[in-house]
């Protein structure tokens, strides 16, 4: 499958995140798209007989592919997530957050703290097997830890996501992210996948 970069209104800048920062961030995403496509081509001719767990071309390509593809998917969710006005979620997502965390404020406090604790990403995701939602922490693009879960919100906390505008003030960047969160995007994802019927 060939990946193509998607377009997002948020790359023109949003409340608290400059156009320059967002456009540079988007270029990074485009790089992951390009790299995933390059790796796919190389995988067509890789020597399978030389596969080895210590070092081999197949191992290197497969690790790189997982990293690039998860970077693509997380960034697409991220850029879509920050195209709103920061209002609290309604509908199924809002109810699920209230049921699990007790309130939106409780969820938000947990999500923000997880963003401070993470080195790379925080994903608010729905677990299809037990019907729960959780704020998962991942230190790298390919470290999303739960199978059979669908992320609804992706918060990028790598330095590239904020350093140009905020320096080391990650907490201020996280505040800016939530001023722009688009819960309609998450609600549409819940509706399109049927999780709101579970």
How would you describe what is shown here?
- The chain has 198 residues and is mainly alpha-helical.
- The chain folds into two domains: 18-81, Helix Hairpins (Orthogonal Bundle), CATH 1.10.287; 91-197, 3-Layer(bab) Sandwich (minor pseudopilin epsh fold), CATH 3.55.40.
- It contains seven helices and three strands.
- It has helices at residues 19-43, 57-81, 91-101, 104-117, 163-166, 170-179, 183-193, and strands at residues 121-127, 132-138, 149-156.
- A three-stranded antiparallel sheet has the order 2-1-3.
- Helix 1 runs antiparallel to helix 2 (57-81).
- It is globular, with a radius of gyration of 18 Å.
- The mean pLDDT is 95.
Quick description:
The chain has 198 residues and is mainly alpha-helical. It has seven helices and three strands. Helices cover 51% and strands 11% of the residues.
Low-confidence parts: none
Give the proportion of residues in helices.
40-55%
Alpha carbon gap, first and last residue: 30 Å
% residues in beta strands: 5-15%
Query: How large is the count of helical segments?
Result: 7
CATH architecture of the largest domain: 3-Layer(bab) Sandwich
Strand order of the largest sheet: 2-1-3
List strands and helices in order, with pairings:
Blueprint: H1 19-43, H2 57-81, H3 91-101, H4 104-117, E1 121-127, E2 132-138, E3 149-156, H5 163-166, H6 170-179, H7 183-193
Antiparallel strand pairs: 1-2, 1-3
């Amino acid at each position: 499958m060939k990946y193509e970069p998607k377009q997002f209104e948020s790359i023109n800048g949003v409340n608290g995140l400059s156009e320059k920062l967002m456009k540079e961030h988007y270029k990074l995403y485009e790089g992951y798209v390009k790299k995933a496509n390059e790796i796919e081509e190389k995988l067509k001719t890789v020597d399978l007989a030389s596969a080895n767990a210590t070092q081999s071309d197949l191992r290197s390509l497969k690790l790189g592919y997982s990293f690039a593809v998860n970077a693509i998917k997380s960034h697409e969710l991220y850029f879509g997530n920050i195209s709103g006005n920061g209002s609290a979620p309604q509908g199924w997502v809002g109810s699920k957050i209230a049921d699990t965390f007790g309130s939106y404020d409780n969820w938000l406090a947990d999500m923000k703290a997880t963003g401070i604790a993470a080195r790379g990403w925080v994903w608010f995701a729905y677990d299809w097997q037990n019907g729960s939602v959780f704020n998962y922490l991942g230190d790298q693009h390919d470290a999303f830890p739960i199978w059979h879960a669908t992320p609804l919100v992706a918060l990028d906390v790598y330095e590239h996501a904020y350093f140009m505008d905020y320096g080391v003030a990650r907490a201020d960047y996280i505040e800016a992210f939530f001023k722009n969160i688009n819960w309609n995007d998450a609600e549409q994802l819940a509706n399109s996948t049927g999780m709101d019927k579970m």
